[in-house]
UniProtKB/TrEMBL annotation:
Keyword Hydrolase appears in the UniProt entry: no
Alphabetical list of SUPFAM superfamilies matching this protein: RuBisCo LSMT C-terminal, substrate-binding domain (SSF81822), SET domain (SSF82199)
UniProt-listed GO biological process terms: methylation
Membrane-spanning parts: none
Protein name as it appears in the record: SET domain-containing protein
Segments forming domain SET: 27-274
Gene Ontology cellular component list: nucleus
Top-level division of the source organism's lineage: Eukaryota
Pfam families (UniProt xref): Rubis-subs-bind, SET
Acidic residues bias spans: 455-464
Organism, scientific name: Cylindrodendrum hubeiense
């Protein structure tokens, strides 16, 4: 889209927004074109802004959701949760807030010019950089990032085909132009609406559920279907940063966006999407930033820990299977742990309270490993004669585990850093490298922290990729 069309769409959207009864938009801000830094539209300050200034107000009637769209009135059976809750095994389970909003968005989108939200749809994205839309080759660049298993394309598609498509097909008169579209085309529309919701929608508390006087943060966190979700025009033109300067307040009749601290003329107004690692930022929003790398995580699958116990210390698989079954029966078994830094809470004015620091291996992983090693000691007292030996094995197993995770990434930190210096990487390729590099750096911090212990000597050879020498003492 050339810049006059792009800015024309922004201008029409602003006019439409200002015509909504109850909407306000401060003279101190404007919508701008930030495509030169891959940030689409955003809002900047045109003059210095004091803290707690109202930047704009969105009347709740301007939001798109099941309460404002005409669709639920036209298809009461589909949306009426009570009638679907009947105790009938054959009854269709109620649609959750996620699929309900996708259906509403498909309906409004297919209305075209007749939708009351047309100027809003004109500023919503038509293309996405989220991994949902990446090729296998592009996904391969994420290497062994756990995020690859969280994209959920197949399950989303199953829901679109199994749930939404039959509703659209059996109500063709309500969904304009649906008859002339193939199943594939409608699924593509559903994917686009789903991805738009993922990156743009807010959680909106229903009035009756809202705790008195309590505000909610806004961005969609809850995908389990309980919350009321909605598309909030203008609030979603705000980009976000890990350090932010504005906040969306949820009030009874409207949502207001206010400044949290002084904002200088020319600065961008940033909302907050949450303490997401870059992998999650990419999965939901299709971008990554250096500032979010403080929240990076690495998932540690328990089976990698078990392999370390077997290969490093010869603990038989059968012993581990038995111990695992016992813990599973007691519902105390975890199959995945999260390696992360201590980041502290963000200050109330949107700034960081301090640097992120790696403080240690996940406590729950250590507890489970300890429980396993105690079990091993019972069946093989010679292998683990005392607590000192158990602690030593515990550390070495964790070190081996981290090393195994590092070796799952085909390139080293050094190689990734070199790659990022090149200027021939695609945007998606660059983001994939940044995600995997952030994970490797966290692993390196954890390895360094563990190897500061005398019993386990480890090195990270950056030229040839990470490597480890674990001294099997004792
Ligand atoms: C709620 S929208 C914000 C408005 C969006 N820029 C637009 O043009 O419609 C969220 C999307 O904005 C982009 N975005 C938000 N914050 C960003 C940032 N700090 N840097 C780059 N892109 C950002 C991402 O594409 C994300 O999916």
């Amino acid at each position: 889209m050339d810049s006059s069309n792009f800015n024309g769409a922004s201008e029409k959207f602003l006019q439409w927004f200002q015509s909504l009864p109850g909407a306000t938009f401060s003279d101190a801000i404007k919508i701008v074109d930030l495509r030169d830094r891959n940030a689409g539209r955003g809002i900047i300050a045109t003059q210095d802004i004091a803290p707690e200034t109202t930047l704009f107000t969105i009347p709740r009637k301007g939001i798109i959701n099941i309460e404002t769209s005409e669709l639920p009135k036209k298809l009461p059976d589909v949306f009426d949760l009570d009638s679907q809750m009947v105790d009938d095994e054959d009854a269709v389970p109620p649609m959750d807030s996620w699929s309900s909003l996708i259906l509403v968005m498909i309906y409004e989108y297919l209305q075209g010019d007749s939708s009351s939200w047309k100027p809003y749809f004109d500023v919503l994205p038509s293309a996405f950089d989220t991994p949902m839309f990446w090729s296998e080759e592009e996904l391969g660049q994420l290497q062994s990032s756990h995020m690859r298993s969280k994209i959920g394309k197949a399950s989303a598609e199953e829901m679109f085909r199994g749930r939404l498509l039959p509703i659209i097909r059996s109500n063709a008169g309500i969904f304009p132009s649906s008859e002339s579209r193939s199943d594939e085309e409608l699924v593509e529309v559903a994917h686009k609406m789903g991805s738009t919701i993922m990156a743009y929608a807010f959680d909106l508390e229903k009035d009756e559920d809202a705790d008195e006087g309590e505000e909610t943060d806004g961005w969609v966190e809850d995908r389990d279907g309980k919350s009321l979700m909605g598309m909030v025009p203008m609030a979603d033109i705000l980009n976000a940063d890990a350090e932010f300067n504005a906040h969306v307040n949820h009030e009874e009749e409207s949502l207001t966006v206010t400044s949290l601290r002084p904002i200088k003329a020319g600065e961008e107004i940033f909302n907050y999407y949450g303490p997401h690692p870059n992998s999650e930022l990419l999965r939901r929003y299709g971008y990554v930033t250096e500032r979010h790398s403080r929240y990076d995580v690495v998932e540690i699958p328990w089976d990698v820990v078990e392999s370390a116990m077997t290969t490093q210390f010869g603990i038989p698989r059968s012993t581990l299977d038995k111990l695992r079954n016992e813990l599973e029966e007691e519902e105390e078994f975890e199959d995945t742990f999260v390696l992360e830094r201590e980041t502290g809470e963000v200050n109330s004015d949107g700034t960081f309270s301090g640097p992120a620091r790696f403080e240690g291996m996940p406590e729950d992983l250590q507890q489970q490993l300890k429980a396993f090693l105690k079990g091993v000691k019972k069946s093989q007292p010679d292998a683990i004669p005392d607590k000192r030996k158990r602690d030593e094995i515990q550390k070495a197993v964790q070190a081996k585990t981290l090393q195994s995770l590092v070796s799952r990434y085909p390139t080293s930190i050094f190689e990734d850093e070199l790659l990022l210096k090149r200027n021939d990487l695609s945007r998606r390729g660059r983001m994939a490298v940044e995600v995997r590099l952030g994970e490797k750096k966290l692993l390196r911090e954890a390895i360094t922290a563990l190897s500061s212990d005398d019993d386990v000597e480890m090195t990270l050879d950056e030229e040839s990729g990470p490597s480890k020498r674990a001294k099997r003492s004792g």
